[in-house]
Amino acid sequence: MGIKQFSQPVSGTGGQPVATNAAGTIETDNYAHGGGFDFDGSTYPYTLNPAETIQELVITIAGNITARITTTGGDTFDLKLAGGTGTFDKWEIDSVEFRDPNGTNSRIAGGWAGE
Asked: Looking at the record, which segments are called Disordered (predicted)?
């Protein structure tokens, strides 16, 4: 059972109190751990598998490669980057393996944040 905190009324339009009834956790997007990576493309596959859970994955440089993502729940799926960049924060990621299915030897760089 959680602890009741911040028990203050919230006013809506016209100063009327807003009624809520919710329980759960709040994602702060502030993570205690993180790191960067920059792989030159010469020795695929590359594995990103920190001891922490990856909460946010940022790709800043990518060629035509595939990111094989494994979540903390055990799901594994391929995400084709195809020269794109992006920020991914919808999964709790256990590990990422970058693959080069077309042999392009493309560089991949970015960072991660997690807890």
From this structure: 1-22
Structure-token pair, residue 6: 């911040």
Q: Is 75 left (phi over 0), alpha (psi -120 to 50) or beta?
A: beta
Number of domains within the chain: 1
The model's pTM is 0.75
pLDDT tens track for 40-51: 999 999 999 999
Q: Give the structural domain span for 53.
A: 32-114
Tell me the CATH number at 73.
Answer: 2.60.120
Place of tokens 């009324």: 9
Q: Which amino acid is at 49?
A: N
